[in-house]
Design a protein that fits this description.
This is Betaine-aldehyde dehydrogenase. It comes from Micromonospora craterilacus. This protein is of the alpha/beta class. It has two domains: 282 residues, Aldehyde Dehydrogenase, Chain A, domain 1, CATH 3.40.605; 188 residues, Aldehyde Dehydrogenase, Chain A, domain 2, CATH 3.40.309. The strands form five sheets. The protein has a seven-stranded mixed beta sheet, sandwiched between helices. The protein has a six-stranded mixed beta sheet with strand order 9-8-7-10-11-19, with helices on both faces. It has a three-stranded antiparallel beta sheet with strand order 5-6-20, with no helix packed on it. The structure holds 1,4-dihydronicotinamide adenine dinucleotide and magnesium ion. The site of 1,4-dihydronicotinamide adenine dinucleotide (NAI) has 26 residues, from α9, α10 and α13.
Length: 498
């Protein structure tokens, strides 16, 4: 079914029927200066709804609310770990109860398929709350012996919240990226000002409503939509103790510089250009399927996208033909159409950017084994899944993060040669190896400079696993048992026993 209003849930229709306000101190308010911006459906290029646009003034109010909610004797500061745990679990249940609604909002705002949003983004978001609900009561310290002759001490560590966290997130998994920051932050007792991406503010605003419904005290999570300047106002704000950012490496560098004013803590999840290495002894059917998933999942808009395929020469043609055939079979269409395999890109800007990379590669003599440098449809930001060969390592299509359904394939002969090529990038987020030889897979995996290495799989994931980047792919790790470290300060307490 095409996307018309009849397919929308009544709750979604009602959510889109009036301008959306921002959440500050438990209240839904307009921007002080009354400004709004439009959010657009990338399948139809039509405006969905207008959204309040936060200025530095609104950011200031939100930070003040987050500070007041953090400091004693606020209700939040007095909540016990068990109470926080139960609250987190309740929010997970509420998200699950509203899964279809979130999936529709995500599909409308981002373009992704409704089913992909429901079974992926929304399901994982709910699970994140439940996983971290367990951690809230398990943030333990250690007792540490001291050796001072003739005196007795009791020394121990405590994990304490950092304070006010500014969470700035992108548009590729809007709800999920917001939850990646909010969930560990509040598990540890911090408070948050969230700045969703300007392309996709809706699911974060709906989440704000559910947080209040679940009983999260006012000011603990504030949601201030806007563009980069709204994010920049947060990053510069002296009342913010930590910035948690996911987005481009370019903006990540700006954030690191801007945060230096009060030396706020910074964690960064940035871009990638993941190498995906197929050895001739691999299970080639699995490797082809993995290359297709790695290259085209979420319209290729993943920081861990397997964008650089390296294939050992003996099987190069076979693998290229397999991936190209699968790419050609992908049906591009509206995310509300059950027969679509892939939706549009998120925005006109991304559409132009991705197509210009494909065009640039063709102009430089590269070959399109699948796909096209032309828009896939007249209307909407659709791109045909593309596989490019005859590329050199110096071409932009091979060095830059494209963030679209574009994969390059390059042949290689030896392990040393492919490891050098794979690591020849400023990024280090993800990498993959396909081989039936356990020694080859683990040895090459260890040589790849990346925060996540997949062996004979791609996009396999769990909220229990840490993720993050080497090199210019970022600072810090999110999720898993390491995921709370960046949201806590470690305090050492030394008592003399007299
Ligand atoms: P971006 O990095 O500009 O935007 C991400 C978030 O940062 C948004 O919420 C944006 O409003 C905010 N922001 C922008 N400038 C800021 C500033 N100076 N201070 C604070 N916050 C700021 O990413 P954009 O422009 O949407 O996409 C450009 C490219 O970035 C993509 O083509 C892709 O290559 C990469 N990207 C990577 C992502 C990842 O997950 N690693 C996610 C999104 C984009
Ligand atoms: Mg930008």
């Amino acid at each position: 079914m095409p996307n018309d209003n009849s397919t929308l849930l009544p709750s979604v229709r009602s959510f889109l029927s009036s301008p959306r306000q921002m959440l500050i101190d438990g209240e839904w308010v307009d921007a002080k200066d009354g400004r709004t911006f439009a959010t657009v459906n990338p399948s139809t290029e039509e405006v969905l709804v207008d959204v309040a646009q936060g200025s530095a003034f609104d950011v200031d109010r939100a930070v003040a609310a987050a500070r007041a909610a953090f400091e004693e004797p606020s209700p939040w500061s007095r909540m016990t770990p068990r109470e926080r745990s139960h609250l987190l679990w309740r929010i997970g249940d509420l998200i699950e109860a509203h899964a279809d609604e979130f999936a529709q909002l995500e599909a409308l705002d981002n373009g992704k398929r409704v089913t992909a949003a429901r079974d992926g983004d929304v399901a994982v978001a709910a699970e994140l709350f439940r996983y971290f609900a367990g951690w809230a009561t398990k943030m333990e310290g250690t007792t540490i012996p001291m050796s001072v002759p003739g005196r007795a001490f009791h020394a121990y560590t405590r994990r304490e919240p950092v304070g006010v966290v500014a969470a700035i997130v992108p548009w590729n998994f809007p709800l999920l990226m917001a939850c990646f920051k909010i969930v560990p932050a509040i598990t540890a007792g911090n408070t948050v000002v969230l700045k969703p991406a300007e392309q996709t503010p809706l699911s974060a605003l709906r989440l704000g409503e559910l947080l209040l419904e679940a009983g999260l005290p006012a000011g603990v999570v504030n949601v201030v939509p806007g563009y980069g300047d709204t994010g920049a106002a947060l990053v510069e704000h002296p009342g913010v103790d930590k910035v948690a950012f996911t987005g481009s490496t370019e903006v990540g560098k700006k954030i690191a510089a801007a945060a230096s004013g009060n030396l706020k803590k910074v964690s960064l999840e940035l871009g990638g250009k993941a190498p995906n290495i197929v050895f001739a002894d691999a299970d080639l059917d699995a490797a082809v399927a993995g290359a297709v998933l790695g290259g085209y999942f979420n319209e290729g808009q993943c920081c861990v996208n397997g964008s650089r395929l390296y294939v050992q020469r003996a099987v190069f043609e076979q693998v290229v033909e397999g991936v190209a055939a699968a790419a050609r079979a992908i049906k591009v269409g509206d995310g509300f159409d059950a027969s679509s395999d892939m939706g549009p890109l998120v925005s006109q800007e991304q559409h132009e950017k991705v197509l210009s990379y494909i065009r640039g590669a063709v102009d430089q003599g590269a070959v399109l084994n699948a796909g096209s440098a032309d828009a896939a449809r007249e209307r909407g930001y659709f791109v045909t899944p593309t596989l490019i060969t005859s590329v050199t390592e110096a071409m932009a299509v091979q060095t830059d993060e494209i963030f679209g359904p574009v994969v390059t394939a390059v042949p290689f002969d030896t392990e040393d040669e492919v490891v050098a090529a794979a690591n020849n990038t400023v990024y280090g987020l993800a990498a993959g190896v396909w081989s039936r030889d356990l020694g080859t897979a683990h040895r090459v995996g260890a040589r790849l400079r990346a925060g996540t290495v997949w062996l004979n799989t791609w996009h396999a994931d769990d909220v229990t696993l840490p993720r993050g980047g080497f090199k210019q792919s970022g600072w810090g790790r999110e999720l898993g048992s390491f995921g709370l470290d960046d949201y806590t300060e470690l305090k050492t307490v030394i008592a003399e026993l007299r």
